[in-house]
Design a protein that fits this description.
The chain is mainly alpha-helical. It has two domains: 9-189, MFS general substrate transporter like domains (Growth Hormone, Chain: A), CATH 1.20.1250; 216-397, Growth Hormone, Chain: A, CATH 1.20.1250. The protein is 79% helix and 0% strand. It is built from 17 helices and no strands. The chain has helices spanning 9-21, 28-32, 35-42, 46-61, 64-74, 76-94, 100-129, 134-163, 165-187, 205-213, 217-221, 224-253, 258-285, 288-305, 312-341, 346-375, 379-397. It is globular, with a radius of gyration of 21 Å.
Length: 409
């Protein structure tokens, strides 16, 4: 490879962020952009669609494990090309769908290829290149992802409104197949060693070897650290998915209007972006386990506080707290696996963790809906989740580094 005046891993960070953006048609927020016109077009009721979406998410999560294994075996570059091509063809097919049965199949494929498979490949790509500066790399990655999604939501939303959901989905398929697929194949490289470069490690040889070798998936599953961080992120995702789907109803229950709801979305997103950047910097000088503990503590406080907010400033302050905690959790989830378990089986390990988070995100809205159906209020679910989140945060503070891996600084 031509010698460059910068570390090539940063090119992969940019490509990985674009790959995560490509998951949009397989994510709840992306599908949400076309839900109403799609239901009207196919004359489908929301309950039936919700059931399709639930099963599509659950079935799609099963793809995380094999994709993680294939990333380790065949490389992120090859898997990225295969998954993006498959997702592009699926979205293209969905733009022309006429029956509910075929829609169910295609939504399942978008969940499997987008939300599950492509997320695993994208996160693994950064971890394979940055075993040492992983916190900073993932902080930059997370900020890029947030900015790209914010831009894409506006563009896709405009396309849906002006041209219809079918045209918008066809345009996304075109971007995937004609734009991103060749770009990824041209620029992405699976590992530094593949192109004759060293990793970003600047530590002694023993630490470099430990990170390069790493633990197997089975060994990782046998550690308390894996389950602490996987469950912490999963319960965070469970709460976020439930709040995200019913946030307008939650705030209406507290006496606030739709405009306030939309403002909290903007505030939370902006604070989350800033928090991701700061968390990436902090993670480089402070342990990731303590950063996770701090984030979970803040989020638990926000959950307990939310049912008691009574003023506009309190609602916005709560949104700031949730956004800050969310930014930290995001960076830790992206970075912790290579830091604790090394690079050799990183795809498998991240795939297992991603599967748990997807399952939790599918369950979250059901728990929130069941809570309000049984109690007439959302308050109980917040009081139930807060101590669990806090306990997992405390566990993260003391999560031990697996035997054979580098001791945290």
């Amino acid at each position: 490879m031509l010698r460059l005046p910068f570390y090539y891993g940063w090119v992969n960070v940019g490509c990985a962020a674009l790959a995560m953006l490509a998951t949009l048609p397989g994510r709840t927020q992306g599908l949400g952009l076309i839900t109403e016109p799609l239901l009207a077009d196919l004359q489908l009721n929301s309950t039936h669609y919700a059931q399709i979406n639930l099963w599509a998410t659950l079935v799609g999560s099963l793809v995380c494990l094999p994709v993680g294994r294939w990333v380790d075996r065949y490389g992120a570059r090859r898997m990225l090309a295969i998954v993006v091509a498959g997702l592009g063809l699926t979205v293209w097919g969905m733009s022309a769908v006429k029956t509910v049965a075929l829609l169910a199949v295609l939504i399942t494929l978008t969940r499997a290829l987008g939300q599950s498979a492509l997320s695993v490949v994208s996160i693994s790509l950064v971890g394979k290149w940055f075993p040492r500066r992983i916190s900073m790399a993932m902080g930059v990655y997370a900020v890029l992802v947030g900015l790209l999604f914010a831009t894409a939501f506006g563009l896709v939303g405009y396309s849906v409104r002006e041209q219809g959901w079918r045209t918008a989905w066809w345009e996304i398929a075109l971007v995937l197949l004609v734009g991103l697929l060749p770009l990824f194949w041209l620029l992405v490289r699976s590992t530094p060693e593949e192109v004759g470069l060293a990793t970003d490690c600047r530590e002694e040889a023993a630490d470099t070897v430990a990170l390069a070798q790493g633990l197997s998936l089975r060994a990782a599953l046998g550690t308390s650290a894996f389950w602490i961080f996987a469950l912490a992120t999963s319960f965070y995702g469970l709460a976020v998915s439930g709040i995200g789907l019913f946030n307008e109803a939650i705030l209406r229950e507290l006496g606030f209007d739709a405009k306030t709801y939309h403002t909290t979305l903007v505030v939370g997103a902006l604070v989350g972006l800033l928090s991701q950047f700061v968390a990436g910097w902090i993670g480089a000088v402070w342990s990731l386990r303590r950063l996770m503990a701090l984030a979970m503590g803040l989020y638990a406080a926000a959950l307990v506080w939310l049912p008691f907010v009574t003023s506009y400033i309190e609602v916005m302050s709560n949104a700031v707290l949730m956004g800050a905690a969310g930014g930290m959790v995001t960076v830790v989830f992206f970075a912790i696996w290579v830091d604790y378990f090394g690079r050799l089986h990183l795809g498998r390990i991240q795939g297992a963790a991603q599967m748990l988070t997807v399952l939790a995100s599918a369950i979250g809205p059901l728990l929130f809906a069941e809570c309000t159906a049984r109690t007439g209020s959302y308050a109980a679910i917040f009081f139930t989740l807060a101590p669990i989140v806090l306990a997992l945060g405390a566990a993260a503070w003391f999560a031990p580094m697996p035997a054979g891996m580098q001791t945290e600084t």
